[in-house]
Design brief:
The structure holds 2 protein chains of 2 kinds. By secondary structure, chain A is mainly α. Chain A has one domain (11-167). Helices cover 66% and strands 0% of the residues of chain A. Chain B has one domain. In chain B, 75% of the residues lie in helices and 0% in strands. Chain B has helices at 2-8, 11-18, 20-48, 64-84, 86-90, 93-121, 129-154. The longest helix of chain B is centred in the N-terminal third of the chain and has 29 residues, at 20-48. The model of chain B has no long low-confidence stretch (mean pLDDT 95). At the A-B interface, α3, α4 and α8 of A face α3 and α7 of B.
C-alpha cells in the first residue's frame, strides 16, 4: 500500500520518532506489546471502575453514598487514564498507519473527545451544585445527563478499542482529511 | 484433542469463527463485562484499603448487582469465544490461571462483604487483616486482567485442524 497524501499525520515521521526514543524497540521486543496491552486494559478498568462508580451514583442507580466521598476515587480514575494514554501512545507510535486510518480507532478518539468535553462541562456547570447533596438525595437532572453521557462514551471507547484489530488498513482505510 | 476437533465442527463454533461480526460482538461484550466486574472489584478493594473513607463500606453492596451483571456478560460471551477456539484456550495454562485469579478475587470480595459489612454498618473499625485482604484482592483482579490479555500471546495452538498428524 502506498502512503496517503496526509496533511496532518506523517506516519513515517511518527515511526522514526518512535525508533529514536526507543518505544519501537521496546514494543517489538518479545514482551513489549503484551505488557503494553496489560497496562492499557488495567488502566481502563481502573478508570471505568472509578468513573463508572461515580456515574452510577449520579444516575441515581446506587443510593446511600455521598458524591463528595466517592469523588476521592477519581484520582485513581485519572491514574488509570494516564496508564491507558501512555500505553495507547506506544501502540500508535509503533504502527501509526494501523491506527490513524482505522475507522474503529478514529471513532474511539471521537468518543474520548466527547467523554473529555462532557467531563469539562460537568465540572464547569454542575459539580459545585452537588457538594451539598446528601448520601440518599437524588441527583439533579443535569448531573444524571452528564453521568449518562459519560458512561455511554466510556463503554463506546471500550467497544471501539476492542475492535480496532478488525478494521485495520489496508482492508479498511478511513482518511477524510487526506488529499487524493 | 478429539473433543476439541468435534467442538470446532459444531455450528456455533464455525459461526463464531467465520461470521465477521460474531467474534467481535462477543469480544465487545466480554470487554464490557470485564470492565464492570473488574472495575467494580478494583474500586471495592480500594475502599477496603481506606480510599474514600467518607463513603460507608456496606453501601458498596449497591454496586454488586452491576458487578454480577458484568460477570454474567463476561461468562456468556466468554463461552461463545471458547466455542470458537476451544483448543486455543483449553490447552493454555494462562487460561486456567485467569480463572484462578478472578475466582479468588470474587471469593475475597464475598468474604470481605460478609465479614466487614456488619462491622461497618455498626460503626466498628475493620480488623487489621482488612488491608491485607484488600491489597490481595486488588492484586488478583489485576492479575486476572493480565492473564486475559496474555492469552493471545501464550497459546500454542489455534485450532486442532492446524496440527499436522505425526508420521
Amino acid at each position: 500500500m502506498s502512503l496517503p497524501n496526509d496533511p496532518i499525520f506523517d506516519v513515517v515521521d511518527i515511526t522514526v520518532w518512535g525508533i529514536d526514543v526507543g518505544i519501537y524497540d521496546f514494543m517489538y521486543s518479545a514482551w513489549g506489546w503484551p505488557i503494553a496491552e496489560v497496562v492499557h486494559f488495567t488502566g481502563l478498568c481502573l478508570l471505568f471502575g472509578a468513573v463508572g462508580t461515580f456515574d452510577l451514583r449520579m444516575l441515581g442507580a446506587v443510593r446511600g453514598l455521598p458524591l463528595n466521598a466517592l469523588h476521592r476515587l477519581i484520582p485513581f480514575g485519572v491514574a488509570g487514564f494516564v496508564l491507558s494514554v501512555v500505553s495507547g501512545v506506544m501502540f500508535v507510535v509503533s504502527a501509526p498507519d494501523q491506527y490513524v486510518y482505522n475507522p474503529a480507532w478514529q471513532i474511539k478518539m471521537v468518543l474520548l473527545g466527547i467523554a473529555g468535553a462532557n467531563m469539562a462541562g460537568f465540572y464547569l456547570t454542575t459539580a459545585r451544585k452537588l457538594t451539598a447533596l446528601g448520601p440518599d438525595d437524588p441527583p439533579p437532572l443535569g448531573a444524571r445527563i452528564f453521568a449518562g453521557v459519560s458512561l455511554t462514551a466510556w463503554l463506546g471507547v471500550i467497544a471501539t478499542g476492542r475492535v480496532i484489530t478488525a478494521f485495520r488498513p489496508p482492508a479498511w482505510f478511513w482518511c477524510a482529511w487526506c488529499g487524493s | 484433542m478429539d473433543a476439541f476437533a468435534w467442538m470446532e465442527q459444531t455450528r456455533l463454533s464455525v459461526f463464531v469463527r467465520e461470521d465477521f461480526y460474531a467474534y467481535f460482538v462477543l469480544l465487545i461484550f466480554h470487554a464490557w463485562g470485564m470492565a464492570f466486574l473488574v472495575g467494580g472489584g478494583i474500586v471495592f478493594s480500594l475502599r477496603v484499603l481506606g480510599v474514600a473513607k467518607g463513603a460507608r463500606l456496606e453501601r458498596f453492596a449497591g454496586f454488586f448487582p452491576y458487578m454480577k451483571l458484568g460477570a454474567a456478560m463476561a461468562v456468556i460471551s466468554g463461552l461463545g469465544l471458547l466455542a470458537g477456539y476451544p483448543a486455543k484456550a483449553l490447552t493454555n495454562w494462562v487460561f486456567a490461571l485467569k480463572f484462578l485469579c478472578l475466582g479468588a478475587a470474587a471469593l475475597l470480595v464475598w468474604l470481605m462483604a460478609r465479614q466487614f459489612f456488619p462491622l461497618a454498618a455498626s460503626g466498628r473499625p475493620l480488623p487489621a487483616r482488612a488491608k491485607w485482604l484488600g491489597a490481595a484482592c486488588l492484586a488478583l483482579w489485576i492479575a486476572g486482567i493480565a492473564c486475559g490479555k496474555l492469552l493471545l500471546y501464550t497459546n500454542w495452538i489455534l485450532l486442532t485442524s492446524d496440527l499436522v498428524p505425526a508420521g
